[in-house]
Amino acid sequence: MVGDYVLMPDHLHFFASSRDLSITVERWTAYWKSRFSKGHSHTDWVWQSHAFHHRLRHDESFTEKWRYLTENPVRAGLVAKVEDWPYQGRIHSIRW
Hints:
3 helices, 3 strands, globular, alpha+beta, about 100 residues, 3-stranded antiparallel sheet, Alpha-Beta Plaits, about 30% helix
């Protein structure tokens, strides 16, 4: 399940939680890329060969990581304030 997300012009950040722990992040990412590509045929779009992912550990703060992600549009100079970026939200509420 995808929870909170930030969509940037050239990449996407999101928090996700698996319902099936036997599915690896790499396999899930490959599936997602395949489904998206089938629904959006843009020959000039190229997927990054490997997804970067980070698993939150027990001692890491979701809030700290989320703050870093939401500040991406500000650091990129796209908006002055985090709340001005319209391409962010929540699909599912994930409990941490």
